[in-house]
Structures are given as C-alpha cells and as structure tokens.
Amino acid sequence: MKGLGFIGAGNMGEAMIRGILAAKLIPPREVVVLDVRPGRGKELGKNFGVSVARGMADLFRKCDTIVFAVKPQGIRDVLREVQAGDAKGKLILSIAAGVPTRVFLSALGKGASVVRAMPNTPAQVGMGCTGLFFARGVSREKKAWARKIFSSFGEVGEFSREELLDVVTALSGSGPAYAFLFIEAMADGAVRAGMGREEAVRLAAATVEGAARMVRVTGKHPAELKDMVTSPGGTTVAGLAALEIGAFRGTVLSAVVAAWKRSRELST
Fold first, then answer.
1. d(CA 105, CA 253)
2. Residue-range domain boundaries for the chain
3. Fewest CB atoms within 10 A around its CB: which of 103, 129, 146, 232?
4. Over 90: is that where the pLDDT of 33 sits?
5. Contact of 97 with 118, CB cutoff 8 Å
6. 20 touches 26 (CB < 8 A)
7. What is the C-alpha end-to-end distance of the chain, expressed in Å?
8. CA 43 to CA 54: how far, in whole Å?
9. What is the edge-to-edge ordering of all strands in the sheet holding 65-68?
10. Can you tell me the mean pLDDT for 201-210?
11. Are 12 and 97 contacting, i.e. CB atoms less than 8 angstroms apart?
12. If you average pLDDT over residues 234-249, what whole number do you get?
C-alpha cells in the first residue's frame, strides 16, 4: 500500500510519525502530512523529511492509508472536506478519542475500510500502547498493515467490541498523564526530603519504568510484586499506609472511570 497520510499532525500525530520512521516501516518521503496550522507541515518536513500535501484531494491521491489525527470535535468538519469517492479502497485509521467508526462509514461511503485506534504518546520512544477495533469489511491484508503500523512503535491490543476502545482511551490513552503526575509527586517528595530536583526526577522515572517492566516480564500480579517489596514494619509499608490514607487506589480508579465517561460522552 503506497503512501501514509496524516490529517492533523499534533503531539500524537508527530509521535506516530516519529515511531514509524524510527522503525523504518516506510521511507520518510512516503509519509504525507496535512495540517491547518501555517508552517506545521514545513516544520515536520524539516525535522523528519516527510512530504507536505497541498490539500485534502492531494493527500488522498498520494496515499492509500490515511490517519485522521485531529481533535474529536473537529472530525465531522474535516470529513466534509473529503470528496465523494476519494476514500474508496483506502484504509482509514482514526485516532480521534471517542469518535465511533459509524461516523466515518457514514461520511465516507462504501469502499472505505475503517479502523479505530487509540495509541498513546510513548509511541515517540518506541514504547506505545494501542487498542484497535476493525469495522466490518476491513480485509485481511489491510488488518495486517494496520497492525504493522501500530506495532512499529509499541504493543497492540485488538478488541471485538468497539465500546472497549473508550476504556482503552481512559486507561492507556490518558494513562501516561497519570504516570507523569505520579512521577512528579514522587520527585517532589524526594526534594522535600533534601534531594536535588534533577536527580529526584531521574530516579522517580527510572523507578516507575522498572516497576512496569517487572509486571510485564515476570507475569506476576502487581499485588504479589508489591508484597515482595514490603517488609514488616519497614519503610515501604509506612509509605503504602500513607497512600491508603489518601485513598490512592480509589482516586486512580476514579480517574480512569472519569476519563472513560468523558470518552463515552464524545461518542454520542
């Protein structure tokens, strides 16, 4: 499939482009971007060597795969710019949070193959996490190509029920922000105890990264790994007690549910 086009090239679009090119999945010149912000396309061309589309029709003419990477609120306006028949035979990848595939199928008509995806920003360092839902009618070949695109910069999970993409949005799509806040808070605690800011952030980030890797590599339940670190009457249990007093687990759970509810609101 020739050409990989991006409609919108914000933080997530750029993260995908960075990850795809780092994995050498496609030559930079075959990545084509279209962004409403003046100079954004030229900026990405300079930084990554990608091509810049002259307009919507030009993008669809050059690319067999189109990534809709605009804000959810702007999707319908962008779809109105696509000419009838331009999407026929194309693979449409949407990363717009909360926008169901029916919106694309209705606007683009028959012949378009639509995939809803929810990647996250760690894609730019090759450690992304993406949930995929394939609308009816996507061929085996196109499914394989979509998997290849998103697995080029991290893990991929497929879901047979589209509504679970809203859960993916709340968990892994928004999740990096929760993790960043946790890292910042840990570092603040170390600074309060006398450590320098730079060293505190570095150690906090490495700690969270290492803990996450232990969960994935060992296959053990997080609670089991937590107990391995927790000695009777020790420092860890004292810290855990403080987290429980602050309703840490309940607060994080509520954050995921709140993000899920917002994603569902965007779907209506």
1. 34
2. 4-162, 175-267
3. 232
4. yes
5. yes
6. yes
7. 33
8. 15
9. 51-52, 31-34, 4-7, 65-68, 91-94, 113-118, 128-134, 154-158
10. 98
11. no
12. 96
Write out pLDDT tens, residues 147-193.
Answer: 999 999 999 999 999 999 999 999 999 999 999 999 999 999 999 99
Q: Please state, in angstroms and rounded to a whole number, the distance separating the CA atoms of residues 267 and 211.
A: 34
What CATH homologous superfamily does 4-162 map to? NAD(P)-binding Rossmann-like Domain (3.40.50.720)
- Does residue 66 carry a pLDDT above 90? yes
Count other Cβ atoms within 10 Å, centred on residue 10. Answer: 14
Q: Which residues of 135-170 are buried (b: 16+ CB within 10 A; e: fewer)?
A: beebeeebbebbbebbebbbebeebeeeeebbbbbb
Q: Which CATH superfamily is domain 175-267 in?
A: ProC C-terminal domain-like (1.10.3730.10)
Amino acid 9: pLDDT: 85
How many CB atoms lie under 10 A from the CB of residue 64?
A: 15
Quote the mean pLDDT of the chain.
Answer: 93
Residue 231 amino acid letter: S
Confidence of residue 268 (pLDDT cuts 50, 70, 90): low
